[in-house]
Amino acid sequence: MIPCCDLADHEIDASVTDMIDSVRSGFYIAPMAVENTVMFEHELKQLEKRVDALVQICDQLQDENRSLQQRQDMLTAERATLLQKNEQVRARVEAMIGRLKAMEQGG
User: Are the CB atoms for 22 and 35 separated by under 8 Å?
Assistant: First the structure.
């Protein structure tokens, strides 16, 4: 094991101590920074997956909404057609009833 010395006991140029301190701090900070970066990347990938899933759900909901809107339009048109036919049938039945009443009264 290499003995550690206290830099305060020696007269060393300030730039040298700054360099040594930056190297020392690199040994202690770098592993933590790498760990934080890995954790950040993992969290970012998880978030990316969730966003992709939400985009996919939004796309599916838009498709479903478009399909339902088309279905509603089709059913609305069909309803209008059926109402029109119902009115025509009602008019024909009322006309038949009127003719039957006229025949009863005339006959």
Answer: no
Sequence spans of domains, the chain: 15-106
In degrees and rounded to multiples of 5, residue 47 shows phi and psi of: -65, -40
Cα separation, 107 vs 99, whole angstroms: 12
First-to-last alpha carbon distance for the chain, in angstroms, is: 131
Calculate the alpha carbon distances from 41 to 9, 19, 32, 61 in Å: 43, 30, 14, 30
Q: What is the pLDDT of residues 21-39, one digit of tens each?
A: 655 555 555 556 778 888 9
Residue 35 tokens read as 């760990």
Q: Is the pLDDT of residue 72 over 50?
A: yes
What gap in Å lies between CA 81 and CA 75, rounded to an integer? 10
Give the Cα separation of 73 and 67 in Å (integer).
10
Residue 59 corresponds to which tokens in the numbers above? 């796309």
Does the pTM surpass 0.70? The reply is: no
